[in-house]
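Deviation from plan, reported transparently: flavin-adenine dinucleotide complex.
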Amino acid sequence: MVRVFYFYTMKDFIIVGAGLAGISFAETAFLNNRSFTVISDNSQNSSYVAAGLYNPIVLKRFSLPQDAAIHLDYMLPFYERIQHRLNIKIDYSLPVYRKFASVEEQNNWFQAADKPALEPFLFPEILHKDFSGLPAPFGFGKVLHTGYVDTVVLLRSYKEYLKSLDCFEEEKFNYSELIIEHDYVSYKGVQARHIIFAEGFGIHSNPYFKYLPLDGTKGELLVIKAPKLDLDVAVNASIFILPVGKDIYKVGATYEWYDKTPTPTQAGKMELIEKLNELITCDYEILDHLAGIRPTVKDRKPLIGTHPEYKRVHLLNGLGTRGVMLGPSMANELYYSIISGEPVRREVGLQRFKLS
Ligand SMILES: Cc1cc2nc3c(=O)[nH]c(=O)nc-3n(C[C@H](O)[C@H](O)[C@H](O)COP(=O)(O)OP(=O)(O)OC[C@H]3O[C@@H](n4cnc5c(N)ncnc54)[C@H](O)[C@@H]3O)c2cc1C
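Because the crystal trials were delayed, the predicted structure below was used instead.
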């Protein structure tokens, strides 16, 4: 099908960033028959490093983030459509098993499973399953409606797809070359009605939005090969272990609030190895060690909306630790806000922070 990209000299959107946020907005624009160009470099790699897990429950606190069920319902068909159109496999439905360390933790699970909001997501029995290489004398609690998105396949394939439509530029966006007019923006000769910034932690170089309190949280992750570990579910304990096939597992992640460098560290590696050794009893080989900066905000909410002074300039950021689940619905909320002229909801909007 030939789409609108070629018919207008003025595009609807320039999108800066091709991580989960930028790709989600591009897909939303595509679904609404809007024209766009995506510009991205590889300066940030949070979306590539991500394990891609989606799980509506925050297991550490047994809480259900606001609208988690809505985000889940929205994201499943969203990724399914991409799978279908690009002929790729990215969404793997997979149970998450919470490993219990004590009777107290088992009791906490029962209490949580009784709460009406959590009940659809927590299986109300303790599972005693023997996974070879992972002893669990107190058993597991099973979270329902979980899985993971293979973000590497998603992002690489989507970029190739955009290139084939001639709407992807692999380069650093130079903010000083952006011209903002009343009714449109212009960048290196490309005119568009709106510009969407989706640079993740790269927001700190953006003169329009760097006033926002996006602190960023570094995360490190190991990729291991463990032929004697026989897991067909994701296990959550002090860290997670995610089976991705062929005896390969992703193991993560660390949370580091001070170091903002994107490189893996020895300390991060040791932390993961120590926690992994407490969890599994079999041998393993480390294949890779990755790091990225999650675009986290202090109040743990996304940051989306229109710049307070420039109505053509918009932001899609703050996806934090949950980019897979939040990306699609936040892109949709921002899209409809731009098209309708109505602000996004305050709890996710950048209007909750003052321009300074
Ligand atoms: C170790 C780790 C594990 C994680 N696990 C999960 C998980 O299991 N599930 C989950 O949902 N989330 C997970 N996350 C969080 C998830 O990665 C983020 O929520 C998500 O990737 C944020 O996407 P983003 O598009 O906003 O940012 P990014 O992925 O950082 O993308 C921003 C893009 O913009 C580009 N860019 C920036 N500045 C410029 C510029 N000036 N010019 C051009 N391009 C620019 C960058 O190069 C990049 O391509 C994890 C993160 C880490 C670090």
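The first helix runs from residue 20 to 31. We consider this an acceptable substitute for the interim report.
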